[in-house]
TrEMBL record:
<keyword id="KW-0560">Oxidoreductase</keyword>
<protein>
    <recommendedName>
        <fullName>tRNA uridine(34) hydroxylase</fullName>
        <ecNumber>1.14.-.-</ecNumber>
    </recommendedName>
</protein>
<dbReference type="InterPro" id="IPR020936">
    <property type="entry name" value="TrhO"/>
</dbReference>
<keyword id="KW-0808">Transferase</keyword>
<keyword id="KW-0819">tRNA processing</keyword>
<comment type="similarity">
    <text>Belongs to the TrhO family.</text>
</comment>
<dbReference type="GO" id="GO:0016740">
    <property type="term" value="F:transferase activity"/>
</dbReference>
<feature type="region of interest" description="Disordered">
    <location>
        <begin position="309"/>
        <end position="328"/>
    </location>
</feature>
<dbReference type="InterPro" id="IPR001763">
    <property type="entry name" value="Rhodanese-like_dom"/>
</dbReference>
<dbReference type="GO" id="GO:0006400">
    <property type="term" value="P:tRNA modification"/>
</dbReference>
<dbReference type="Pfam" id="PF00581">
    <property type="entry name" value="Rhodanese"/>
</dbReference>
<dbReference type="InterPro" id="IPR036873">
    <property type="entry name" value="Rhodanese-like_dom_sf"/>
</dbReference>
<dbReference type="Pfam" id="PF17773">
    <property type="entry name" value="UPF0176_N"/>
</dbReference>
<dbReference type="InterPro" id="IPR022111">
    <property type="entry name" value="Rhodanese_C"/>
</dbReference>
<dbReference type="GO" id="GO:0016705">
    <property type="term" value="F:oxidoreductase activity, acting on paired donors, with incorporation or reduction of molecular oxygen"/>
</dbReference>
<feature type="domain" description="Rhodanese">
    <location>
        <begin position="125"/>
        <end position="218"/>
    </location>
</feature>
<comment type="function">
    <text>Catalyzes oxygen-dependent 5-hydroxyuridine (ho5U) modification at position 34 in tRNAs.</text>
</comment>
Length: 328
């Protein structure tokens, strides 16, 4: 049996951050000093992250988050792995913790009713219930709940426009879900704002549902935002619903096209992956921007000049960053 000495943590917290840039620097220093890797977004409305590290380092990280009164309510979805799920640590300041066109909505003021996995499971098959997937195409094409309504959108910013087609369902019970719960906070709030009467959200998302309800009736795999790309969640009645982008055979093997100018994220079976050298088409295979293919279809993102130590001095004796200081 593999030694799974690492944790992968998925979390978010909507909470006001007065000086997000200062907190970004402090947060990054803590991650560096405790060997935490991953992607974290800091914004005036809160924080959102997926990180990995040794179990003991992740325990320190969770304690660090919970020790801050602003984030004491943060709930972590914890998975076990045999290595880091990220190559680096990126802590970035952004206007929102999830891209949307719904900045006016505060989930701490109004949002859909939270359903624990067991309650979601008990309610999802009722006649007056509509299950609504609020994720993007590449996510729900890989896996989704049985009988769920999916929206044809490339990113969450399209959500307000797409739900106009659901006006006829305003008198139904709407059960929203996403990967970890963060998108549902604003999606369900927006549904309420638009006149939907009875709106719920799966607390902790698909990941928590897999952990606590064995993922029953979730068809396919769940797309995740780390090096694993896709994970199994259904231990009861698993199936595969996605097909290879190239040949059409059943496949849940998610890859990025090796052509960096395309970079489409789709299922490609192993056979087609090797034949096209990681590209999604013969045209992309011949593109001069095609990256070397190692069989995984995962490519480290360009950091675009990101400097994690911007504004932070280092200790001359150890080379490790000090507790946060700003250059004058």
């Amino acid at each position: 049996m593999e030694n799974k000495n690492y944790n992968i943590l998925l979390y978010y917290c909507y909470a006001e951050i007065i000086d997000p840039e200062a907190y970004r620097e402090e947060h990054h220093v803590f991650c560096v000093e405790n060997n935490i890797r991953g992607r974290i977004i800091i914004s005036p409305e809160g924080l959102n992250g997926t990180v990995s590290g040794l179990i003991e380092d992740c325990e320190k990280y969770m304690a660090y988050i919970h020790a801050d009164p602003r984030f004491s309510k943060t709930e972590f979805k914890i998975d076990f792995y045999d290595k880091h799920a990220f190559a680096k640590i990126h802590v970035r300041e952004k206007p929102e913790i999830v891209h949307s066109s719904l900045r006016h909505l505060d989930p701490n003021v109004k949002t859909g009713k939270h359903l624990e996995p067991a309650d979601f499971k008990a309610l999802k098959d009722d006649d007056d219930v509509v299950i609504l997937d609020v994720r993007s195409n590449y996510e729900h094409e890989l896996g989704k709940f049985k009988n769920a309504i999916t929206l044809d959108m490339d990113n969450f910013r399209e959500f307000p426009e797409k739900i106009k087609a659901l006006d006829h369902l305003k008198n139904k019970k709407i059960l929203t879900y996403c990967t970890g719960g963060i998108k549902c906070e604003k999606a369900s709030a927006f549904l309420l704002e638009q006149g939907f009467q009875d709106v719920y959200q799966l607390h902790g998302g698909i990941i928590k549902y897999g952990m606590e309800a064995d993922g029953e009736d979730f068809e396919g795999k769940c797309y995740v935002f780390d090096n694993r790309l896709a994970v199994d969640v259904n231990k009861v009645n698993p199936t595969v619903i996605s097909t290879c982008h190239v040949c059409g055979d059943i496949s849940d093997r998610m890859v990025n096209c090796a052509n960096s100018t395309c970079n489409i994220h789709v299922p490609i079976c192993e056979k087609c992956g090797w034949e096209l050298e990681g590209a999604c088409s013969p045209e992309c295979k011949e593109n001069p921007e095609k990256r070397p293919y190692d069989g995984t279809g995962y490519y480290q993102k360009n950091t675009n000049g990101y400097n994690p130590y911007s504004g932070v001095f280092r200790k001359a004796d150890t080379g490790k960053p000090k507790a946060i200081q700003h250059e004058q």
